[in-house]
UniProtKB/TrEMBL annotation:
This is serine-type D-Ala-D-Ala carboxypeptidase. Its EC number is 3.4.16.4. Belongs to the peptidase S11 family. Residues 31-252 form the Peptidase S11 D-alanyl-D-alanine carboxypeptidase A N-terminal domain. Removes C-terminal D-alanyl residues from sugar-peptide cell wall precursors. One of its GO terms (biological process) is regulation of cell shape. One of its GO terms (molecular function) is serine-type D-Ala-D-Ala carboxypeptidase activity. InterPro entries: Beta-lactam/transpept-like, Peniciliin-bd_prot_C_sf, Peptidase_S11, Peptidase_S11_C, Peptidase_S11_N. It catalyses: Preferential cleavage: (Ac)2-L-Lys-D-Ala-|-D-Ala. Also transpeptidation of peptidyl-alanyl moieties that are N-acyl substituents of D-alanine. It comes from Candidatus Borkfalkia avistercoris.
Amino acid sequence: MFKRLLLALFSAAAIALPLCMASGNCTASAQTEKSGQIVMEAYSERVLFEENADGVMPMASTTKILTAIIIIEDCDLKDIVTVPKECVGVEGSSVYLTAGEKISVKDLLYGLMLRSGNDCAETLAFYHSGGIENFARCMNERAKKMGAENSTFKNPHGLPDPEHCTTARDLGRIACHAMRNPVFREIVSAKSVTVPDGGAGYERMLTNKNKMLYCYDGANGIKTGYTRAAGKCLVSGAERNGMQLISVVLNCPDMYERSAELLDEAFASYKYVKIYAAEGMRYTAATQVKNKQCTGMCRDDFYYPVSETEAERIVIRAEIAEPCRLPVYEGDELGILSIYLENQLIFSQKIYSIECVKKSLVDIIREIAENYSQNEGLCASTNISPNAALRAGAPATN
C-alpha cells in the first residue's frame, strides 16, 4: 500500500512540472535551432499556421505518439504481456515495471502516454516486433505511410540518439493520423487511470502529465516531451465546435503558453464548415441509349476549416464520363467530384450510380433497326447487302 501511495503521489506531483522528463544527452542538439511549430486540422490535415515546420530536430517523448498508434492498430489491447527483463530499469521516465510482471497492452499504453514510461515503450516494442531495432524499422515504414517524409526513428521512446529526429510537419501528420483513432483519443485524453497489480505487488495510479488537459478549453491530448538535446516539446490536441486541431511545438521553452496561443488564434480565424453534403446532391448522366439516363451520387460529406473570406471562394465541379455504356449497375463509377479552394484541389471523391439501367427489348430492336438503316445507306454504293454488313461490320468506304 505504501508503494502504491508513493507512486501515486509522485505521479500527481509531476503535473506541476512544465515538461515530461526523458533524461539523457544527445550529440544532435536542438538548443541552437529555431523552434519548429505548426497547427493543423486533424481530418483534412490542412495547415493553419507554420513556422520552421520543416526544420529537422529531435522530438523526445513525443516519439511515443507513433509507438502508441502502431500498437493500437496492430495489436489486441486485451492481450496480457509478460514484461521481459531487458525492459526493466530503462533510464528516464518510468512506471517501474518488474521482470515477469503481467500487464495488458492497453494498460501499457496508459503507462506510455500518461506517465511517459520508457519501460512501457520498450516492453511494447518487444511485444510487437521482438526488439527495439525491429520495431524502429516498423516505425519508419509507418511514418512514411502517414506522410512523414523527413523523420527517422531509432527507438520507441525518444531517448537521445543522433539519428532520431523529425520535423513539426511530420510529427503533426503523425498526430493527426493518431487522433483520428477513437481508442488513441480515449487514452491520451484520460487524466488518470488505475492499473491493477500484475505481479509488482501494488496497483499503479497514473496521472497524465499534459497540463493542457487541465487548463485549456477543449483540450483532449496528446503528448509532452523533453530531453536536454530536444528542449521542451509538446503536441497538443483540442476540439471546439466540431473542429479538431493539432498543434506541435518543438524546442519551445514556453511550450504550454505558445501552444495555447497557436490554438486560440486558429480557433478564432477558422471555422469547420460542411462544404459538401452528399445526401442532397444527385447527378444525371446521359447513356448511349437516347432518352435514357443514369443517376449518381457521392458517398461522403466533406468538412473543411475555412476563414470567413475563403468560404465564398470554394468551387465544386462534377465531371461525368458521358455517354455511359449500358448496362450500368448500382455502385458503378460514373465520374469524379472535385472541390477547389482558389484553384487548389482540396478534396475529390468518386460519383457512383445509385440505380441499375439496362437496355430494354425495345431499345435493342431500335438499335438494330438504326444500325440496319445506316448500313443500308452505306452499302448502296458498295454492292454489299445490309445483312452482310451487319454480320461483318460496316465496311470502310474508299
